[in-house]
Amino acid sequence: MITRSHIPTFPLSQFIDHFYYYVGYKPEHSIDRFLPDGEVYIIFDLTDYPKYIYDNETLNEIQSCQNVWFSGFRTKPISVPSGKNCEMLIIQFKKGKAFPFITEPMQNLTNCIVDAELVISSKILKIRERLLEAVSPIEKFQILEKHLLKVYLNRLKEKPFVDFAVSRIVTSPNQCSIKTISDKAGYSQKHIIKLFKEHVGVTPKEFLKVIRFQKAIQQIENQISVDWSQIAFDCGFYDQSHFIAQFKKFSGFTPSEYIKQRGYFLNYIPMN
């Protein structure tokens, strides 16, 4: 398996966390349960056959994806291909920062995977053609960065309040409240909700829930012996029962089931 990552230069680096390329991954399973991770992606599929989204319960195919697709903010788990025999180049945006690249409010794309040309630009398919011509991962990164700057440079405008609010929630999900953010920013909570829906895809409350879930996932990953009560407290849940209910909502598993089922990569659970 070959994997490479790349952080683009300024000003793309203000909006994009990194590019990630992989090829030659050959797991034994073919389907993963992908958990809500608070991220938004553009996925360039560099193979010539469709990939599928599967029903979480039956694992039947429910959606076909090909070429380039946009994956919005998720509040629900989704069943996706494991990456077996794939060649992919993925753009992972910084939280709350994908908005300049799309043509409609982020809330319209929450829990959705759509053909990228429908919500970004038909030029995204031209970029894919150039990526197919490149030989090395480094060359692909250079081409992607060059063309993104060419197409989107004039739209790369930051939203300081959204950045501030997202940062506060991500940094201290166990202590943060929307009222505190509202008071510090001088905006009404109603206005904050509107901005979050447009730029992040969900309300601040929903965003906070996903970030707390992700903090729990990471703490589980880093502990040899898991203290569920301590994790519930550290991540800002009311109590252990509330933690378990939220965990099952976002993953489809209880925390104990997740421990037994989890895979090699964080947020990906082998299903079939």
| Biggest sheet overview | 6 strands, antiparallel
- Strand-residue proportion: 15-25%
* Second CATH tier, the architecture of one domain: Sandwich
Mean pLDDT across every amino acid position: 94
**Order of the strands making up the biggest sheet:** 1-2-9-4-7-10
Shape: globular
Cα distance spanning the termini: 21 Å
Order of helices and strands: EEEEEEEEEEHHHHHHHHHHE
The radius of gyration over CA amounts to 19 Å
What is the topological layout?
Layout (H helix, E strand, L loop, with lengths): L1 E5 L9 E8 L7 E4 L6 E5 L5 E4 L6 E5 L2 E4 L6 E4 L5 E7 L19 E3 H4 L3 H11 L3 H16 L7 H12 L6 H8 L3 H11 L4 H19 L5 H7 L5 H12 L3 H7 L6 E3 L2
Antiparallel strand pairs: 1-2, 2-9, 3-8, 3-11, 4-7, 4-9, 5-6, 7-10
Helix pairs in contact: 2-3, 4-7
Could you walk me through the main structural features you see in this protein, from its secondary elements to its overall organization?
With 272 residues, the chain is α+β, with helices and mostly antiparallel strands. The chain has a domain of 154 residues: Jelly Rolls (Sandwich). The chain is 39% helix and 19% strand. Strands 1-2-9-4-7-10 form a six-stranded antiparallel β-sheet. It has a three-stranded antiparallel β-sheet with strand order 8-3-11, with no helix packed on it. The chain is globular, with a radius of gyration of 19 Å.
What can be said about this structure in brief?
With 272 residues, this protein is α+β, with helices and mostly antiparallel strands. It has helices spanning 116-119, 123-133, 137-152, 160-171, 178-185, 189-199, 204-222, 228-234, 240-251, 255-261; strands at residues 2-6, 16-23, 31-34, 41-45, 51-54, 61-65, 68-71, 78-81, 87-93, 113-115, 268-270.
